[in-house]
Specification:
binds manganese (II) ion, TIM Barrel, binds phosphoenolpyruvate, globular, eight-stranded parallel beta sheet, 257 residues
Length: 257
């Protein structure tokens, strides 16, 4: 089990991470953060550096967004997770966020893993689109561990299959497999796994039922204006409903939320 600020991850209590894909401006971030907190989230997400597939898409506000993270984190007293895309960004993100995310596109980025390991910060390591659980994903954790970092959380965010109706295919079996092979906490990201708000609640519930230690969900209150991944964001009200249902599944699993 690891503890981020006052939030335990991997124990009996579940972690619910929520917020926008990317931080767009101060007002929007504060507004969404307050709404997800009220709905029951205990950690915030918010991208400052965005690893976009297209170089023409919004790449994040960088340092400006990191400063907003620190403000919202202090004001709402919630830990925040944010991604580092390159090794040079690790130290910077560590100064403002509580957990450093290594995204799916970077699970194989050895230099980034080594730097994240040296940082000593809690790291959320997402599975890559085609990452083998044992031979690649868990190997990647060894780079972090060899650099002296044991504060590792894994995240199943969907893998690429032949199916195109969903953005990716949520591989729920990854959850019990990781439990079988390691002691790392594992959470599920149904937003990137499905790419569709209509599918996010049921996959979040299924993740908890499969034994995940929590979920990470993208939430936006003006999804059509979002600069990144608005098409898959839950509204704050649907997110709040989903948390209520997650509580009931958590209870059935002898977990708390
Ligand atoms: C994200 O969490 O915003 C993200 C970019 O996710 P992934 O690396 O899983 O695509
Ligand atoms: Mn996203």
């Amino acid at each position: 089990m690891i503890t981020v600020k006052n939030v335990p991850i991997g124990g009996n209590a579940l972690v619910v991470i929520a917020g926008p894909c990317a931080i767009e401006n101060r007002d929007t971030y504060f507004r969404i953060a307050k709404k997800v907190k009220a709905a029951g989230a205990n950690m915030l997400r918010g991208g400052a550096f965005k690893p976009r597939t297209s170089p023409h898409d919004f790449q994040g506000l960088g340092l400006e967004a990191l400063k907003m993270i620190k403000e919202v984190r202090d004001e709402l007293d919630m830990p925040v997770i944010s991604e580092a895309v390159q090794p040079e960004q690790v130290e910077l993100v560590a100064q403002y966020a509580d957990v450093i995310q290594i995204g799916a596109r970077n699970m194989h980025n050895i230099a980034l893993l080594k730097e994240a390991g040296r940082s000593g910060m809690p790291i959320l390591l997402k599975r890559s689109f085609s990452g083998l659980i044992k031979e690649e994903w868990l190997r990647a954790t060894e780079y972090l561990q060899l650099a002296g970092n044991e504060q590792i959380i894994l995240c199943e965010r969907g893998i690429r299959t032949f199916e195109q109706y969903t953005r990716n295919t949520l591989d729920l079996s990854a959850v019990p497999i990781i439990k079988e092979l390691s002691n790392f906490p594992i959470i599920v990201d149904p937003s990137h796994a499905t790419g569709r708000p209509s599918l996010v609640p049921s996959m979040a519930l299924a993740g908890i039922a499969a034994g995940a230690d929590g979920v990470m969900i993208e939430v936006h209150d003006e999804p059509t204006c979002a600069k990144c991944d608005g098409h898959q964001a839950l509204s704050p009200s649907v997110f709040a409903e989903t948390v209520k249902h997650m509580r009931r599944i958590a209870q059935a699993m002898d977990r708390t939320l």
